[in-house]
Amino acid sequence: MSLFIVLEGIDGAGTTTQTALLRDRLQADGQPAIQTFEPTNGPIGVMIRQMLSKRIVLPSHTQDAPSEPVTRETLAALFAADRLDHCAALIEPSINAKNHIISDRYLHSSLAYQGDIEEGDTVDYSWIMQLNSRAKVPDVTFFLKIDLETSLARISQRGAARDIYETREKLERLITRYDEVMEMLSTRGDHIVTIDATQSIDAIHTSIWQHISHLQK
What average pLDDT does this structure show over 186-200? Predict the structure, then answer.
């Protein structure tokens, strides 16, 4: 049985590392597996990455006003479009060809990140869910859960420029958002496995592999 597997978590949780390890483990076990990610490297995904890195911004209306990032609503719509393209171009064909497909981020990220609003306001997840209503549901999602300080430390170790979400204030809110999202999707019946991602890389991978092995029995 081919599986559609997603790894999720805030920045620094290790989703990219664990996606690659799982792909390699499946392939070593003789099971065809393809690694992918969101935003994708397709035309919409490339545009999203430029927005996240502030290479594409809202225009300034006065000479002295700083440029502003694009709105959450714009990003949410583009992420949904990129996801549907991702499903049509890679995810569905791969599964139909009997390959496992492992995605570093998916719908859960849209709900958490585009649902990021100031404290005290109510998040309306329904619009984002509607935008993504035709996206394929994963067979299993591994939620790699870490605390704020671990996230910030790992982001700093990368040494790369930070995107618009990688600040202490936003990451702190995102931890809350992810918990809300995972509870909401679990309630609707999604298969979500929460893993303590402050463990070693090997311990996290072992836990993921044990769950995958159980699913295949």
Answer: 96
| Rounded Cα gap, residues 86 and 93, in angstroms | 10
pLDDT at 59: 83
Please enumerate in sequence order all residues whose Cβ is within 8 A of that of 132, keeping only pairs 6 or more positions apart, or say none.
80, 83, 107, 110
pLDDT tens for residues 145-159? 999 999 888 878 876
How is residue 61 written in tokens?
Answer: 């209306």
Residue type, 64: D
Strands 192-196 and 33-37, bridge-based pairing? unpaired
Q: Which residues of 50-68 are buried (b: 16+ CB within 10 A; e: fewer)?
A: ebbeeeeeeeeeeeeeeee
Cα-only R_g, the chain: 17
4-59+68-215 CATH pick, 3.40.50.1260, 3.90.1150.10, 3.30.420.10, 3.40.50.300: 3.40.50.300
In Å, the largest CA–CA distance within the chain is: 63
Provide mean pLDDT across the span 50-60.
Answer: 87
In this prediction, residue 52 carries a pLDDT of: 86
